[in-house]
Amino acid sequence: MNPSTFFSVLILLPALSVAASAAFVPSSPAANNEQVSGNASRGQVIFDGKGNCLSCHRVADQGSYMGPDLSSIGDTLKPEELHKTLVSPDATVSPQNRLYRVITNDGKAITGRLLNQDIHIVQILTSDAHLVALKKSSLRSFDFIDTAPMPSYRDKLTTAEQTDLVAYLASLRGVIKQ
What is the pLDDT of residues 130-170, one digit of tens each? Predict the structure, then answer.
């Protein structure tokens, strides 16, 4: 890529400084208090391993900044909503969590989460936690990707594994283990 394409490229965001500066969201009044079938401990093993969820999501201080932080997802979504997101992500992923792709004038594609844009600049957080700011005049195209970045786990996990994963996600209430 031509170096003049970049308006600025910021250094790798240190995970600690980002985590420390992020506002911690307390439990909402509409906290999910439903009983959940499944085993949250087995669900965490799936989340960390077979599900490969940390490659896009964060829980506490672990994982990627590419997808939403799930540290308190149990306070936000009910178990049936969590399950629907696992098996039909295109139907449930909110617009702010869609990926954004830019193509530079020299043909390089950069994909990430759109953080900001104005009439001159587009700022994207890439999967490797680089904040990239590009002049729109140096871009051939820029827009949201239509499909959800999250794969469907309908055929990737058994029904029992899905139930355990939902139990783990429902248990995430913003409490960081010490």
Answer: 999 999 999 999 999 988 889 999 999 999 999 999 999 99
- Structural domain including 126 reads 99-144
How many C-beta atoms surround the C-beta of residue 28 within 10 A? 11
Pairing of strands 58-59, 6-9: unpaired
- The rounded distance, in Å, linking the Cα atoms of 112 and 99 is 5
β-bridge partners, 110: 102
Is position 16 within any domain? Answer: no
Residues 80 and 168 in one domain: yes
What CATH number should be reported for the domain holding residue 134?
2.30.30.100
Together in a domain, 103 and 91: no
The residue among 153, 99, 151 whose CA lies nearest residue 125 is 99
Tokens of 10: 């910021």
Distance CA 47, CA 139 (A): 36
**Type and span of the H or E element at 127:** none
Distance of CA 142 to the CA centre of its chain: 20
